[in-house]
Please model this.
Amino acid sequence: MRYAILADIHGNLDALNAVLKDIECRGGVDQYWCLGDIVGYGPEPHLCMEVLRQLPHLAIKGNHDMAAVGEVGLSAFNPDAAQALLWTREKLSDEDISYLIGLPQKLQKESFTIVHGSPREPIWEYLVSISSARENFSYLETPSCLLGHSHLPLLFKQKEDGSGCSFIPFKEGIGQILGKGRFIINPGSVGQPRDGDPRASYAIYDSQAVIKLYRVPYDINAVQLKIVRKNLPVRLSVRLEHGV
Ligand code: ZN
Model:
């Protein structure tokens, strides 16, 4: 079995379509795992949801998904994010809203727990350091974890005996064997990467227990134009080209 791991699509249909095309070029996958924040920031939330729903997939909810349907307030979001969320609320169909409300916060699949933020705090925690990874391994009921939220491709490993936690560079196109040990993995963001590389980011995991990160160029200018035309905050268009 092969699985595509997609996180933080954020209403960026052009990036999502480029990633889906890239997956097809690589022989396709059996299922798509979506790690939350399907909507928010980007100019095409409804169409992203339509595309996702047509794929064989499973998904969990992110903080932006919850805010877009009113499950959490907007006070925890910066002004640009909050403005985009208010706009997003108006653009979602009834089907989109019930779909997002119905998503779980946490799932278990194969050897993974799947969350948006962290095993300890599935919605809000940004897991970006070795110390937080170390703490979070103790909250895991599965060997490993897939998560999003920080929009940074990251891979942490804990030794089999639980004695140490290390950071492993998670670089494009290099397969990482998930053999002995436990792992916390972030595939980066499809729709708004923040590691300085503006290309869409995702991963493929296969039943040989290898996970590989891929980066995909897409037409960023086209998305920027949509953001401006829909009167979304201009800063959201600028950050896309810088990958921040
Ligand atoms: Zn996000």
Remarks:
- The longest helix spans residues 13-25.
- The first strand starts at residue 2 and ends at 6.
